[in-house]
Design a protein that fits this description.
2 domains; globular; alpha+beta; single chain; SH3 type barrels; 12 strands; about 190 residues; 6-stranded antiparallel beta sheet
């Protein structure tokens, strides 16, 4: 089950864009709380994951789907309000200014993630590229990954180099190109 933290304060400024705020490790929820207090629109998708402790206890935790990042919807000139927050390291971009994320990508994530089973996944360089052609994440492209007999597609936000694996029906995806394996992949297979 996927939950999320998101706040929309409905400010009238049309120059607002989505940016990825890079946080200190394990500070995503605290940064989200500070953003809420300052009435800054945010999006922090969460997932439920089990954790097994050394003493034998199993516990279910809500963890960030994109560890180390909180998405903020701000005008560029208000980036200092975000950067001043305790726990925020930077806003992702070039050395001179932050790079906005495509609004449609964030909107697809906001509307589609609650409807699918998603969890973080390492960025892959090996696998078949596909496009989701039906469902809440329609239009996204990713890499096919089969884990424990479940069909999964790994979606990557290139700007922050983070990925999530989502379960989809095999009928809802279509190939978008041929895959040419890298030398690193061939070397890994030869071992």
């Amino acid at each position: 089950m996927l939950t999320k933290i998101e706040r929309n304060w409905n400010l009238p400024d049309t120059s607002r864009r989505w940016y990825a705020a890079y946080t200190k490790p394990c500070h995503e929820k605290r940064v989200a709380e500070h953003l809420e207090i300052r009435k800054i629109e945010l999006f922090l998708p969460l997932y439920r994951g089990s954790r097994h402790w050394n003493n034998g206890c199993n516990i279910t935790l809500e963890r960030p789907l994109f560890p180390g990042y909180v998405f903020v919807h701000i005008p560029l000139n208000e980036r200092v309000r975000v950067l001043k927050l305790s726990g925020v390291v930077s806003i992702v971009g070039t050395t001179r200014e932050p790079t906005p994320l495509p609004d449609e990508d964030i909107e697809r994530l906001r509307s589609g993630l609650p409807l699918v089973n998603a969890e973080p996944h390492p960025v892959l360089t090996v696998g078949e590229r596909v496009r989701i052609r039906r469902g809440p994440l329609e239009g996204w492209s990713g890499i096919v990954s089969r884990i424990q007999n479940r069909f999964r597609v790994v979606l990557t936000l290139d700007l922050i180099m983070k990925s999530v694996a989502v379960e989809v029906c095999a009928d809802d995806v279509e190939p978008i190109g041929t895959h040419e394996p890298s030398y690193r992949a061939m070397a890994a297979c030869a071992r």
